[in-house]
Write a structure and sequence with these properties.
By secondary structure, the protein is an alpha+beta fold. The chain has a single domain, classed as Nuclear Transport Factor 2, Chain: A, CATH 3.10.450. The protein has four helices and five strands. Strands 1, 2, 3, 4 and 5 form a five-stranded antiparallel sheet that branches. The longest helix is centred in the N-terminal third of the chain and has 13 residues. The protein is globular. Keywords: Signal.
Length: 177
């Protein structure tokens, strides 16, 4: 998964400089104010909840938490590479399709189509569509700590020119390769 975007850098320096440059009594236009981060969300109970929580972590710049939604799979990038992929992301919007479910050998596998709008730190929007695959080892068969909640096995998103409001994700019938 390669989505080149992350959080705006308006924490203290630029905002403080803007405030100090204003004449006394002047106000900052609403469009110049930094949006507040969304409320914390960490829910791993359904495929939609996991993906919603993933993008909540990205929007809050909590990249370690975002990384934790992925299962430890052979093609998982190292954390530094993962976090750098979101370095220019200010915020996201996500729309999810209907998940599909398949069982096998004590696990449940899910495919979830998604459309993601990424707003970069430069204010430009990019739209990506694709699919996430998730796995949950049946809780009843997990008898040795630590418990492993539902997690992302892989994701494959591609940049599209379709506007976000019209974009839809798709998942291949035979899963992501």
């Amino acid at each position: 998964m390669s989505i080149p975007f992350a959080k705006a850098l308006w924490r203290s320096g630029p905002l403080l400089a803007l405030f100090l440059a204003l004449p006394f009594g002047a106000s900052v236009p609403a469009s110049a104010a930094e949006p507040s981060p969304p409320d914390y969300r960490d829910d791993r109970s359904t495929p939609e909840a996991v993906i919603g929580s993933l993008y909540n972590a990205i929007d809050r710049q909590e990249y370690l938490r975002a990384y934790s939604y992925f299962r430890d799979e052979p093609d998982l990038p190292d954390f530094e590479t993962f976090a750098a992929g979101y370095a220019k992301t200010a915020r996201t919007r996500v729309r999810m399709g209907q998940p599909t479910e398949e069982g096998g050998a004590g696990s449940l596998y899910f495919s979830l189509p998604v459309a993601v709008e990424a707003i970069g730190t430069d204010g430009r929007a990019e739209v990506f569509t694709g699919c996430y695959e998730l796995r949950l080892v049946q809780p009843a068969v997990q008898v040795t700590p630590p418990f492993k909640p539902m997690g992302i096995v892989k994701g494959k998103l591609a940049k599209v020119t379709t506007p976000f409001d019209a974009a839809t994700g798709t998942c291949p019938d035979r899963g992501l390769q």
